[in-house]
Automatic annotation (TrEMBL):
It comes from Aureococcus anophagefferens. The keyword Hydrolase applies. Residues 38-305 form the Choloylglycine hydrolase/NAAA C-terminal domain. This is Choloylglycine hydrolase/NAAA C-terminal domain-containing protein. Keywords: Hydrolase. InterPro entries: CBAH/NAAA_C (IPR029132), Ntn_hydrolases_N (IPR029055), Peptidase_C59 (IPR052193).
Length: 328
């Protein structure tokens, strides 16, 4: 989460909480049959569920909210209930068991803009995945719903729309994913002393062409290519292996606060407020805040979603960067 909201680091830290929603929760005109765990922020008390930005439900379906400034939502009509775009995430989490349910769920509502949240969130698109490994990108472009199968690619960032990212990714079709590194440059030439020019001076030459910026297109390409290469060479054999790979990939796009300038005097810094890892098949939701690299796990199989109330848990706590003493 790199939402650039105009708040200080301390204010942002106190904004986000880990929340649990029981079955039967009310969201506007909708009653949500499924319980879920989510990360939410209470912007303007936009809904009873706050601003849900990320979550997993009791069936393993997950939803991630990401910025899409160019999104255009639907016009209100009398045929279906209006749903603010800021409520799409909790609606899908509380309504859908698998990715295949998303289209039918969204057909029952009209997704509309939300003021003043549209100015804060700058509008959004959504990544939805389920316990079977299916994934879909949900976007509203030109006032129409677009659903893109994302099961094979498995990556989404912010602007521009998903189809643009796919075309941009094509520019890296020749990225080197071979297991053994070849000499870089022209054919080697013998010189005095038996050296060759040019010679392989270091490992990692295949990554020289990776985009290194923090822009959404850069992060999209970098995450996809690094994951593809890692899995091609050392495919995870266990869930713990997969967590280690995913955590390492997330680390490559971690934004340090202050390294990305504000867009205007009223805009906030973009920085990694928090990160999550999700194991839908195991119903496990892992989260860590900016100031602590230690992952914290929520086991959804141990929660009672039948109506038991859980207190909201702040993501941040007073700590010294998650450092613990080791006694010898």
């Amino acid at each position: 989460m790199e939402l650039g909201i105009p708040l200080t680091e301390k204010e942002t830290n106190s904004l986000w909480s880990l929340v649990t929603t029981a079955r039967g929760a009310q969201l506007g005109e909708q009653t949500l049959p499924l319980g879920f765990v989510a990360i939410a922020g209470a912007f303007h008390n936009e809904s009873s569920l706050g601003l849900v930005a990320e979550g997993m439900n009791e069936k393993g379906l997950t939803v991630s909210v990401q910025t899409l400034r160019g999104a255009e939502y639907q016009k209100k009509n009398d045929d279906t209930p209006a749903l603010k775009f800021t409520d799409v995430a909790p609606y899908l989490l509380g309504s859908c068991t698998v990715v295949g349910d998303v289209a039918a769920a969204l057909a029952k509502v009209t997704v509309v803009d939300s003021e003043p949240m549209g100015d804060v969130m700058q509008r959004a698109h959504w990544s939805v995945a389920d316990a079977a490994g299916s994934s879909v990108v949900v976007e509203y472009v030109g006032g129409a719903l677009r659903l893109h199968d994302n099961s094979r690619l498995g990556v989404l960032t912010n602007d521009p729309p998903f189809e643009w990212h796919l075309q941009h990714l094509d520019q890296w079709a020749g990225y080197d994913t071979r297991e053994y590194q070849a000499a870089w440059g022209l054919e080697a030439v013998d010189v005095e002393g038996g050296a060759t020019v040019p010679a392989v001076a270091s490992h990692g030459l295949n990554t020289r062409m990776l985009p290194g910026g923090y822009t959404p297109p850069d992060r999209f390409v970098k995450m996809f290519l690094l994951r593809e290469t890692a899995v091609a060479h050392e495919a995870p054999k266990t869930a713990d292996d997969a967590v280690a790979v995913a955590a390492g990939l997330v680390n490559t796009v971690h934004i340090v606060r202050g390294t990305v300038p504000k867009l205007s005097k009223v805009d906030g810094y973009e920085w990694t407020n928090w990160a999550v890892l999700k194991l839908p098949g195991k119903r496990q939701f892992l989260v860590r805040p900016y100031n602590d690299m230690q992952w914290r796990r929520v086991d959804l199989t141990a929660l009672d979603f039948s109506g038991k109330a859980y207190a909201d848990v702040p993501l941040y706590r007073d700590l010294d960067a998650g450092i613990a003493d080791v006694a010898f």
